[in-house]
TrEMBL record:
Gene3D superfamilies: 3.10.310.30, inorganic pyrophosphatase (n-terminal core) (3.90.1640.10). This is DHH family phosphoesterase. Residues 245-322 form the DHHA1 domain. PANTHER family: BIFUNCTIONAL OLIGORIBONUCLEASE AND PAP PHOSPHATASE NRNA. Residues 16-168 form the DDH domain. InterPro entries: DDH_dom, DHH_sf, DHHA1_dom, Oligoribo/pAp-PDE_c-di-AMP_PDE. It holds the Pfam family DHHA1. It comes from the Bacteria.
Amino acid sequence: MLDLASLTELLDQPRKIVITTHHKPDGDAMGSSLGLYNYLIQQGHHAKVITPTDYPDFLNWMPGNGEVIIYTENTELSATLIADAEIIFCTDFNSLSRINEMGVLVGKSAAYKVMIDHHLEPEDFDDYRHWDINACAAAQLVYTFIVDQLKHKELINKDVATCLYTGIMTDSASFRLPNTTSTVHRIVAELIDAGANNARIHDLVYNSASENRLRFLGHCLANCLEILPEYNTAIISVNKTDIARFNVNTGDTEGIVNYALSIATVRLAAFIVQRNDKVKLSLRSKGEFPANEICKKYFNGGGHRNAAGGQSDEPLEATINKFKSILPEYKTLLIQ
């Protein structure tokens, strides 16, 4: 394991660095990765961001996005960069399975691995860990890593601030979740002072939907929403036919589960979608209800208490029925 002094010494000289994040990256994954990238290049490091898969178009405006390498589109270059790296930063994930095929390459690499993350139960693949499950976003931890640990607050420039603001904004549901503490607001204020244009960032992320995405959302709410009042639970389920009909792209399903959770009586919401040979689940909950427990225990997943995800090898209907069959176990928590 590296201590902070050893890591700081390593970073005192230009290094070959890879930054990666989880598959199907969201705003926090890309915000934390690109925020770190824009910090490192100021110091002359040879840094590259490699994502395991593609990511939503509404995130492709962030500073440094043009330099991102998508592993599934450039496997040979990605493998070479990972093999040659001296340091690999792992942002917004703590299990190598979360980066798909890249996990084997990162695991075999002789590079020092630095984890910057806020999820439960991290694997022991890293050499240095900046980890806090109480942080609202990995981007928050990138900020404290740069400012509090490396003492480089002066390098939080406009590009760094813009990316980190995006990560914090998206993972805190626009600063609405309980872990959006006064500390988070103070960090956000510092990022705005450093040049992050909060109104423009919000507009680019939340007001850039395609017509297809909006029509798909309408279809989900009008035709795919099921309410289970006896469990204060809502389910939105989508099959492959719907995905093809509305030409659903990466990012088009982002946030749909939150519409179900916005119903006053609902404490648990599920978005269940059929994708190729897998069925994906996104769960959101209110209060103390442990959405992550359901995903970990029954759907080979995990996450945070109020926001978690998982998957199933069973068909869509069987997965929905399995989810429903679990609810009686949690009825006391759901109806309190």
